[in-house]
Amino acid sequence: MGLNWLLIDQETWEEVDPDELSYEELLALGEVVGIESRGLSADIIASLPSINYKAGSSQNGSNDSCVICRLDYEDGETLTLLSCKHSYHSECINNWLKINKVCPVCSTEVSTAAHS
Ligand SMILES: [Zn+2]
Ligand SMILES: [Zn+2]
């Protein structure tokens, strides 16, 4: 589908009214122009496991403060646990993963449980 956009000649192009383009056509145009995101989709971010932080219980491999906002976790706060076992405030890591799909600490690419 994207190829068609590359092949249209100038004459055809001038007849294209952007207001008449469908959503899919606009998306295809965006792909040609090169708009892309290196982050994760909201669906994938939402599917990451979350845990409740408990002060004092040393969870295996997890840190006890959030490197993104540099605050210590409070008892009962909701954290998102990445596949590399690093954890962050859900709100902090959600915003991070929209831009960059790697763990801020160890740079492991965040994988989902889709392929086990
Ligand atoms: Zn945080
Ligand atoms: Zn990590």
Automatic annotation (TrEMBL):
GO terms for molecular function: zinc ion binding. The keyword Zinc-finger applies. PROSITE patterns: ZF_RING_2. InterPro entries: AtBBR-like, Znf_RING. Keywords: Metal-binding, Zinc, Zinc-finger. Residues 66-107 form the RING-type domain. PANTHER family: E3 UBIQUITIN LIGASE BIG BROTHER-RELATED. This is RING-type domain-containing protein.
